[in-house]
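Table 4 source record.
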Amino acid sequence: MKDNDGRGFLRLLTATVFLGILSAALAILAAAASREDWSPRLAAQFLDSRQKAWFAWPPANKSGVSCMSCHTGLPYLLGRRALRRALGEPDPTLYEALLIDGVRATAIKTDGTFLFGDSKGLVADQEFGSQAILSALVLAMDDAPRGRLSPEGESAFERLWALQLRAGENKGAWYWSDFDLDPWETPHAMFYGAALAAVATGVAPAAYQFRPQIRDNVAALTAYLRGTQKTQPLHDRLTLLWAAALLHDLLPQADRQTILDELWAKQQADGAWSIEALGPWTGHPKAPPADGPNSYATGLVAFDLQQAGVQRSDPRLARALAWLAAHQDGQSGAWIAQSMNHPHEAGSMPALFMQDAATGYAAAALAAADAR
């Protein structure tokens, strides 16, 4: 009986070791495939062309300065920065420089009329709140390699905290654009904006987050994010996961693990995520079908997982990256994605907004993983 128990234990041990080796091998194969199956140069060309088009699109340039957008500007900066490293480019692109210079030029503005002169009341407050958050984030990321906040970065954060809500159920957050457009401009996206503000605060250089003069602001932000996170779409909690890796004591480890467990549980067998898996979302009857794997959802998850500290050696992340590498469009260099809200006229600027975001996050995720 003892001999049988010993042989059984050895068989179990051998099987466990074999499964571990198999998982590691699959992760290595997936990593190798992702390096071979996608083109950083094509991705960069697509993103550059779209940011160039954004600069020329009148609705984005009402005052001669382009506003930052969640769908084109932010993913462009995240993706293009990672692609520069992958392509060995020493300097920011013209479009990165123009976008960041525009943010710097407007960091001292104390109302939104410089960008949204025709907006009034709550709409103006929402648009200005989103720009304040995005501006602080962009400048914090741009200043971080220098080790200190620039004067414009300081101004952007001063404006950010001045606009933080100080009372009511959303105390600690900011007004955020709400045009009933998923996933970035809906009532629930106020949480998404606050999570981006937490990322900005955490990434700001020279231990900015520990300054005594913003202690109460950070505490209010932390309380808001902790107190409301369980009712938010998984899409928005992804950004919270990113922020928790940067902002001290933002989220308990158990809450981080809960988000990770939910993400892994919703990953499809092919390594991708559907957009529905990142909901729940409000209904949009005219929206294109959203079943099946989705480039934006998968790119965003893969990017945020890496920002949260998940290593490429994790076979689940490796499968997601391999899926992304295999689904880049070979002609445009983009990752194809459609609006969650309604059809757009073919060739129009908004028709590609979701594709802009999908490409920025997919490229950022793949390039960052290849660099490790």
